[in-house]
């Protein structure tokens, strides 16, 4: 299609926008042709669906990975799979690279555009299509916020188990693209365990619709697993069939203190055996984390300081008259055995929320400790304490100009230890975010992850921020197979290239 083939309004827009896009399109194969394709796409999908040049919103220029924003050439906002298909076909014809975007809460750069790219935003693909109580499933558009999914399940008397701090703004499609984990993995599994069917658009525009609702469906390859966790590099998820569970009728929680990591492991084993399927969360906080959230963030704690580890244990039951006394008796037995040095039991939902406020206080760290870098790794549970001890010492030993030896990079530790996921925050006081010695932090933190046989990403994905370190957790053969899959599905390399692999 040439400019002469465009509608009059499109031709006028092309004339108006050409100077704005000239520098960005110069890097593409045929800038004028690329602009023609974008304008033709806008004519097909509607003016509100394709925002070009100066009309690109600020929000689409970055995700939450603390990198510098980049304005994409255009933001395409389809309303359905057919619109996504049209967008990908138009971009393929113009050889424009495309980055899928959801809630833009990712921390690894997976949804961040690069110069000359088109951002494919799913922000208009929002809503619940169906809740099927017979099959305990929900069919939703990929742009739907996680919290909206949770509320729809609750309104239907059911429960969607995935939960994380960004629930109000992250999109469920983005949660699947990174295989998000969150707070209750120990009971319900990662995001991939909560998906039964997908609709996906491939890089060439082919729509694959497999909105399966059945727990058992062994008819050939489980194709949905190709796209869950692939961070928008193999296809764009547009609709999802989610697995729902029965709604918990009661929630019990305890804030416990133990001496050390051996105490953590003993408590975890006791929770697995004593609580069984009721166990829904097992969150561990190191003393350095505890000090920051209670003394600097001023979060109220029902357990005194001075202990080696603090553990939030949560259980979800179906009958409060039975499950609450059982939980109480389990804790009392552990106290009698001397395993717990202190403990507080939630007496109300408000107490449960108060316990979680300690764990969720990490969201306020920019206000409390200033600029810092957040890390998400996974390690064998038995090795986590040794890793944290060695990592903290190694970071402190990193020399920082103008500071005494041993006063280098500070760090604090916490995480979903029941499912092997450790979070840590590292920073150097007095430095802005761009000035933080991230490269040196990465080398220490991910180098030790490799030493202890862990994963450089537990639940946040790889994106661009961790791509350099993927080989610390995956073999050459595994990475080669990932590249084979990428080449097979995206031979032009246009869908989120340079991410993950």
Automatic annotation (TrEMBL):
UniProt-listed Pfam families: FAD-oxidase_C, FAD_binding_4
UniProtKB keywords: FAD, Flavoprotein, Oxidoreductase
FAD-binding PCMH-type domain location: 68-247
InterPro entries referenced in this protein's UniProt entry, alphabetically: FAD-bd_oxidored_4_C, FAD-bd_PCMH, FAD-bd_PCMH-like_sf, FAD-bd_PCMH_sub1, FAD-bd_PCMH_sub2, FAD-linked_Oxase-like_C, FAD-oxidored/transferase_4, Oxid_FAD_bind_N
Cofactor(s) essential for the protein: FAD
Record bears the keyword Glycosyltransferase: no
Family membership: Belongs to the FAD-binding oxidoreductase/transferase type 4 family.
Annotated protein name in UniProt: FAD-binding oxidoreductase
Species: Pseudaquabacterium rugosum
């Amino acid at each position: 299609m040439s400019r002469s083939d465009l509608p009059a309004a499109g031709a006028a827009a092309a004339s108006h926008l050409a100077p704005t896009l000239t520098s960005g399109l110069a890097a593409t194969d045929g800038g004028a042709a690329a602009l023609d394709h974008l304008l033709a796409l806008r004519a097909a999908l509607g003016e509100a669906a394709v925002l070009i040049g100066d009309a690109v919103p600020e929000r689409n220029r970055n995700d939450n990975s603390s990198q510098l924003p980049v304005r994409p050439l255009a933001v395409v906002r389809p309303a359905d799979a057919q619109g996504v298909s049209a967008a990908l076909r138009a971009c393929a014809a113009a050889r424009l690279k495309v980055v899928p975007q959801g809630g833009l809460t990712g921390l690894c750069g997976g949804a961040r555009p690069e110069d000359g790219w088109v951002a494919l935003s799913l922000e208009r693909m929002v809503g619940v299509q169906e809740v099927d109580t017979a099959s305990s499933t929900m069919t939703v558009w990929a742009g739907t916020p996680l919290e909206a999914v949770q509320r729809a399940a609750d309104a239907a008397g059911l429960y969607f188990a995935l939960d994380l701090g960004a629930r109000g703004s992250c999109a469920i499609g983005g949660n699947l693209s990174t295989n998000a984990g969150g707070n209750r993995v120990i009971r319900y599994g990662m995001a991939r365990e909560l998906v039964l069917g997908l609709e996906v658009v491939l890089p060439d525009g082919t729509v694959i619709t497999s909105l399966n609702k059945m727990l058992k469906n062994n008819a050939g390859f489980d194709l949905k697993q190709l796209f869950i966790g692939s961070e928008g590099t193999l296809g764009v998820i547009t609709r999802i069939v989610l697995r729902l569970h029965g709604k918990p009728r009661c929630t019990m929680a305890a804030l416990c203190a133990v001496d050390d990591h051996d105490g953590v492991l003993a408590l975890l084993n006791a929770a697995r055996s004593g609580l069984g399927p009721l166990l829904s969360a097992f969150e561990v906080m190191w003393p350095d984390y505890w000090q920051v959230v209670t003394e600097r963030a001023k979060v109220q704690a029902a357990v005194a300081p001075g202990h080696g580890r603090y553990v939030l244990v949560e259980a979800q039951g179906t009958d409060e008259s039975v499950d609450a006394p059982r939980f109480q008796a389990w804790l009392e037995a552990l106290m009698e055995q001397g395993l717990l040095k202190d403990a507080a039991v939630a007496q109300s939902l408000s107490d449960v929320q108060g316990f979680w406020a300690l764990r969720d206080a990490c969201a306020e760290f920019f206000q409390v400790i200033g600029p810092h870098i957040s890390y998400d790794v996974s390690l064998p549970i038995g090795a986590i304490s040794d890793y944290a001890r060695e990592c903290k010492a190694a970071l402190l030993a990193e020399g920082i100009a103008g500071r005494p030896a041993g006063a280098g990079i500070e760090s604090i530790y916490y995480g979903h230890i029941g499912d092997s996921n450790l979070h840590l925050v590292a920073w150097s006081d007095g430095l802005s975010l761009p000035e933080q010695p991230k490269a040196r932090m990465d080398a220490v933190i991910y180098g030790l992850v490799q030493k202890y046989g862990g994963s450089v990403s537990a639940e946040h994905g790889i994106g661009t921020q961790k791509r350099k370190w993927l080989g610390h957790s995956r073999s050459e053969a595994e990475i080669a197979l990932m590249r084979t899959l990428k080449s097979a599905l995206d031979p032009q390399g246009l869908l989120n290239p340079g991410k993950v692999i």
